[in-house]
Amino acid sequence: MGSQLPTLDAGVTYLDTEGVPVVLYRLVGHHLADVDGPAYWVDARNAASPDAIRRYAAGRLDTRLRVARAFTGYQHYELVRSLPERVSGRAALIVAPNLGSLYADDDVPTAEAAAMLDATLELLAALADAVDVPVLVTATEHRERVRAAADRRLDAERTRAGLRIDGPAFRTDVYWDDWGFQTTIPYWVDLLGRAETEGETAVVDPVAPGV
Asked: Which ranges of 12-64 does DSSP label H, i.e. alpha helix?
């Protein structure tokens, strides 16, 4: 069975979590369960939830996840600026949820907020490249600017079968749940190949969900 979640590669990944906030915790937990090294979470709007991440991560997460919370755009900007002093080649992940949110607040003048946000995006991209580390970001405010600065994009959607994620070189073909799993047509095409269009046609017995 293929994984239900994509791997996070070095570079900046924009995750669209609209309507599915839990996907951020699942991706972070899934990633930290598979790799060693510390993770750095630059928080905005109290998005950090170690307990939620711990449900999806194996091992001692408490010693690996370093959370710094910002409550203003100025604090967020300074926290991102401090990352190069803290992040080494051992880093497993950098997470910056709600990246544009604090820069949209009234306490930061518009022109200054735009400059700080641009500098933040440039620094995260440069750090991802220099340390060869995945940087995972989400955004609602200033979404287009954040998305345009990312190297790749993942779209999450809640379906009747479960969580679906689409992105470059990844699609959800198997949906897991407490009752079992449900496969999709692309999953069986990848597993068995396409049916012959001429001559003998391949026949695949139907498989019930969860079997």
From this structure: 22-34, 50-54
**Distance (Å, rounded) from C-alpha 82 to C-alpha 118?**
16
Cα separation, 165 vs 158, whole angstroms: 9
Q: In 62-128, at which residue ranges do the beta strands (DSSP E only) sit? A: 65-70, 93-96
- Say what the pTM is: 0.80
Residue type, 194: R
CA 150 to CA 167: how far, in whole Å?
Answer: 13
Q: Can you tell me the distance from the alpha carbon of 44 to that of 97, in angstroms, rounded to the nearest whole number?
A: 6
Non-local CB neighbours of 94 within 8 Å, separated by 6+ positions = 39, 40, 41, 42, 83, 87, 124, 127, 128, 133, 134, 135, 136
Q: Going from the N-terminus, what domains does the chain have, and what CATH number goes with each?
A: 11-171 (3.40.50.300), 179-211 (no CATH)
pLDDT digit string (tens) for the chain, length 211 residues:
335 788 899 999 999 988 788 889 989 998 998 888 999 999 999 999 888 888 887 666 767 899 999 999 999 999 999 999 999 999 999 999 999 999 999 999 999 999 999 999 999 999 999 999 999 999 999 999 999 999 999 998 877 666 778 888 766 665 555 444 444 434 434 434 444 444 443 433 444 444 3
Query: Which DSSP category does 102 fall into?
Result: G
Amino acid letter, 13: T
> For residue 160, what are its two tokens?
């009747």
For residues 72 and 166, give the distance between their C-alpha atoms in angstroms, rounded to a whole number.
32
